[in-house]
Amino acid sequence: MQPDSRMDLTIGPNQYFWDAAVWQDFYARVADEAPVERVVLGEMVCSKRLPFYQAHILPAAERLMAAGKTVALTTLALITLRRERKLAAELAAAGLEVEVNDLSALAHLPEGAAFSVGPMVNVYNEGTLRWLVGRGARRVCLPPELPPASLPVLAGACDVPLEVWGWGRLPLAISARCYHARLHDRAKDNCQFVCDRDPDGRPVDTLDGQPFLAVNGVQTLSAACANAAHQVNRLRAAGVSALRLSPHSGDFVALARLFRDLLDGRMDAAEFSARTMPRAPGGRFADGFLTGAAGVAWSGAQVPDADHPSRRGQEAVATAAAALAGKS
Amino acid sequence: MAEMMELVCPAGTPAALRAAVEAGAHAVYCGFADETNARNFPGLNFSRVELAESIAHAHRHGAKVLVAINTFPRAGAEETWHRAVADAEAAGADAVILADLGLLAHTAEHHPGLRRHLSVQAAAANPDAINFYAETFGVRRFVLPRVLTVAEIAAINREIDAETEVFVFGGLCVMAEGRCSLSSYVTGRSPNVDGVCSPPDHVSYEETDGALAARLGGFTIHRSPKGAPAPYPTLCKGCFTSEGVTGHVFEDPASLDASELLSALADAGVRALKIEGRQRSRAYVGQVVRSFRAAVEAVAAGRPVPPGTLAALTEGQAATSGAYAKTWR
To answer: Among all residues of chain A, which has the CA nearest to that of B125?
Structure first.
């Protein structure tokens, strides 16, 4: 147990398709006000979105760096098209730190060049971690589903900072198929960018009305919002040195401040969770990946917020976690 | 006459392996009975002794055996995966099918003479990824993820100096393989870590209001009218609702059948065709392999694939050519 060890906050790349003005404002506020050490920018999900805000990325990066934050640019999580490969090559040549979220980006990074590894790369064991560090990785955000027992083993195997998913809907899968377009009976090539209607993803419920997943273009996420609050001490003890906060709509600077209060011991996990519940997309929390349970499980108090916007007017349904409790 | 595409066939048991070899498989793929392979189902897969005997049998009949060691080793337990690679080599395997970077590095260093294939679980989806694995770890063949069109596969083959293998029949992943945590989100057990997806011990059925709900980890994946067949609740093939739209949000409960694309895949430069189904019976494996062997012989001879030979095999299930057609997206 190292209670004094510092834990940093990283704001990960926005996973959703936001209006360019909203995007710009988000990062301007983060630069000026958010108590976070590091920000990863760029498009991880769909290359078709990039032209709408690409011109704003470098100015945002400059503003963030001027505010003293470390900045990295993410690659796409799934690179298939020629123009997507070209994007990865341009990213590698941009001069900023690259967060690799598809291993093919390594082909564009010269041997020995420093980079970081994002949560979409499969780092499950010390052999893979050591290989990546040997190739130039200076920091690794681990995959959300990594078993927690693996954390101290990985932390002991290298001396680069390790980060885990701390907040926001969990990225669970990526596909060639666009589910937003499919839900609108459109082909991906004619999607008309309908994913811009859902700044936190579009909810997918079971036929029983249980909140289940969320779709975001070609990406599938959890309906529940990951919240690492109850696991912070365990994560510190395991050698994790940063939490990743994944952007959502609403006042994200306020959320980052609450996280800082939590990490600095000014607030406990229960209070943190009660205060952040209104900001949780989907109106429920999950931390099962961090405890070794099913990812959807939540170790905090089961007090679903009846007034949460996503739950208003819905009949009370048995929570997923309650259903799971009898199983795991 | 063009070179015949290699038919790579599934075997969950030694009996299925013999059935596949007898039916004309050029190669059979299988795994050890543990978490080192992505079909870690009870009662399935091979012991060390079974593997050695099966490889000897296959070699006597001119077929190769490829050993899938394609989950991601658990931290602190890499030795289990390292031993699997060593034992596969000792048993005479013609290649190992790997997904994990660290395991590829280990195998390239400690078993340089053992041929390495990249598993679909590594989802190498573009020429840069393929060339990276080929140059860094000497990978000779790439099982392509099921996210690419035939045209994209052809373009990849023009830019690489390695073989490609594609799935043509059987179960269909909708998501990029090896990049999917849906199963562990709901059940705590995942393809990457445990070699299972939507595991049966987390499945339950409940009859309510004359309908049968099939649940996974407590979540309703399907609801079937009483008496109608209830499909297995594979997570991504379920029926869900999103803001008033109800349906198969991710994929219909269809299986992959690319048999009509075999000529196009040959023209695209594909070296090997893979049939999914290590969990299937030896009778099924024999039947599918026999049909596909006739089909690849026809393609190599420039004859049309005999129509209808494979239709019966999808067992009444809907079939799709999946991502190979761009409209799927």
So the answer is: A80
The ipTM estimated for the assembled molecules is 0.94
Element (H, E) at A204: strand A202-205
Number of A to B CB contacts under 8 A, please give it: 226
Subunit contact A145:B328, Cβ cutoff 8 A = no
User: Are A206 and B179 in contact (CB < 8 Å)?
Assistant: no
Q: Pick the residue from chain B with its C-alpha nearest to A207.
A: B240
**CA–CA separation, A184 and A187 (whole Å):** 9
Q: How many domains does chain B have?
A: 2
Domain end, chosen from B228, B247, B266, is at: B247
Same domain, B123 and B150: yes
The pLDDT tens digits of the residues spanning B106-126 come to 999 999 999 999 999 999 999
A156 vs chain B: nearest CA distance in angstroms?
10
Q: Which residues of A touch B213 (CB under 8 A)?
A: 207-208
Nearest residue of chain A to residue B329 (CA atoms): A177
pLDDT for res A313: 35
Does residue B1 form part of some domain? Answer: no
Co-location of B242 and B302 in the same domain: no
Domain that holds residue B210: 191-247
According to the 3-state scheme, what is the secondary structure of B50-102? HHHHHHHHHHHCCCEEEEEECCCCCCCCHHHHHHHHHHHHHCCCCEEEECCHH
B contacts of A189 (beta carbons < 8 Å): 326, 329
Q: Which domains does chain A have, with CATH numbers?
A: 8-325 (3.20.20.70)
